[in-house]
Write a structure and sequence with these properties.
Layout lengths: L1 E5 L2 E4 L2 H12 L4 H9 L1 E3 L7 E4 L2 H7 L12 E4 L21 H4 L6 E6 L2 E5 L3
Parallel strand pairs: 4-5, 5-6
Antiparallel strand pairs: 1-2, 1-3, 6-7
């Protein structure tokens, strides 16, 4: 993600940059102004870590308690095929617990993403 201010106006990497690029194409903004606007933006740190994907809730349950599972606090857990279309039952089937070895390392939270019902759902509990 990019965000910043250009000539007193908030700009970002999504709609703002697209609108300015369209202004350049239509001749209403010079390319130099566009590049100046881009230079006013700063990148967010984002998230750097590995993704651990579970294909379904059975895959999750069969692997999550394994002490040899290669997972740490920087990982993102993704659970696929657990929504109404991919798994019968309530959306709560996508609730993911931490692997037991993480709390032993004082890790109490991490990013967990579940495909619930018709949309992807991301939760980070504190």
């Amino acid at each position: 993600m990019l965000s910043g201010k250009f000539r007193g106006r908030d700009i970002g990497s999504g709609t703002g940059v697209w609108q300015m690029s369209e202004q350049v194409r239509s001749g209403n903004m010079r390319a130099e102004e566009f590049f100046e606007a881009q230079s006013c933006m700063s990148r967010s740190k984002g998230h750097l870590g590995r993704v651990l994907v579970f294909e379904n809730i059975e895959d999750f349950h069969s692997r999550i308690d394994d002490d040899t599972l290669d997972i740490d606090e920087s990982c993102v857990m993704v659970l696929k095929n657990c929504g109404f279309r991919g798994y019968p039952g309530m959306a709560e089937v996508g609730n993911m617990l931490l692997t037991p070895k993480l709390p032993r390392k004082s890790v109490t939270d991490m990013v967990r993403i579940s495909e619930l019902s018709h949309e992807w759902y991301c939760v980070r509990h504190r």
